[in-house]
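Standup notes
- DV: blocked on the single-chain target, sequence here:
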Amino acid sequence: MMISMWFVLFSTWQSSLVACLTIWVISVITNRRYFHPLSSVPGPFLWAVSGLPILYQQHFKEGNLIHTLTKLHAQYGAPGLQPLKRRHRL
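- DV (later): unblocked, structure below
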């Protein structure tokens, strides 16, 4: 009887943690993709919402970041040439 009670308590705690982390990740992705001032700058989705591609290119591809950034700038244009979204404060 005691084992089943601990299992239910642990599974409730675990599912609550997973739910909170999922909501946090979705809110961070939504904020970075749609509400950030730099969201109007074109580029790959994963690069816009996460820093993991930069980490991967720099550390695991042996410093290949500069070559990847050059390719992305050729494909999407230079980031300073697009007008940014203006956010009005109330």
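- Follow-up: The chain has one domain: 2-81.
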